Amino acid sequence: MSTTLITGLPRSGTTLACACLNTLPNCVALTEPMSVPLHGDPDQAIAEIAAFASTTRARILREGLAPSMSRAGLMLDNTFEDVSQNGALRRSAAQVADVKITKPLSADFRLFIKHPAFFTALAWPLARHFPVYAIIRHPLAALASWQTVDFNVRNGRMPAAEAYAPALRARLAQIPAPLPRQIALIQWMFQLYRTLPPGHVLHYETLARAPAATLRPLSGSLAPVTHPIRGIDLKTRYPGADFTALAAALLTIEADIEPFYPGFAASLRHLPG
User: Fold this and answer.
1) Which of 28, 176, 191, 263 sits at a 20 to 30 Å CA gap from 53?
2) Number of separate helices (H) and strands (E) present in the chain
3) pLDDT digit string (tens) for 155-189?
């Protein structure tokens, strides 16, 4: 059965990718539908992921229902609130609930399951059992987004990943301030994504520009993506972010970013605002 796992930097467009995939024929993409087990046993977790995929696929075909982060029964392309006018942190506006799958599906339809932190920590062993794709975004944009959300990454922590990466957990525990912890998280994720097969790391920037072509290796579909994609102005989207300080912090891990974003340091010369 065709089940593909999607991971990526938090706030990098993984939910948007799911929204786009859901507009394609014979594709169902679920956003963080599992209750992430925190026992820390990779083999057991992989078995639980496989069992979840199997039972969810059967339920979709039998009942037309599947769990996913959603709001009012609808899956979203962004699970967080819109930008606050008073500078308040953006909170999650979605929760896991059953959504109705109404499109026609074959018995071997393509199922996509997205979990950024959980699947990143298990990326290498998972890739031996499933196709695994990671979505990344220019780290300055991702890091700016982290400053504006009421979420663990704002404090430089990622519990669902740390449960399966004790070395990461120990490293983060030794770093006293949020921004250096965030940099350590980005470095760790970029290093892990280099272990994925060639072509299995997708860029948000390419997804936003050409969604159907970017997702075709996953979907196998020649159909156009009909989900609308909005342009983002970083200064407006992430008010209050100190882009100069964020850029300086990211330059400390330039060597890990450069393979994915050649000319990374030069790209920072044109900072928002």
Assistant:
1) 191
2) 14, 8
3) 999 999 999 999 999 999 999 999 999 999 999 99
Domain 3-267, CATH among 3.40.50, 2.60.40, 3.30.2320, 1.10.1740: 3.40.50
Nearest to 118 by CA among 194, 37, 62, 221: 37
C-alpha to C-alpha distance for 245 and 211, rounded to whole angstroms: 32
Give Cα separations from 103 to 23, 24, 61, 113, 228 (angstroms).
Answer: 9, 10, 11, 17, 19
| Residue 90 phi, psi (nearest 5) | -80, 130
Q: Render pLDDT for 224-266 as a digit per residue (tens, 0 to 9).
A: 999 988 877 788 888 888 999 999 999 999 999 999 999 999 9
Angle at 225 between CA 138 and CA 17, to 5 degrees: 40
Q: Which residue positions in the chain have pLDDT lower than 50? A: none
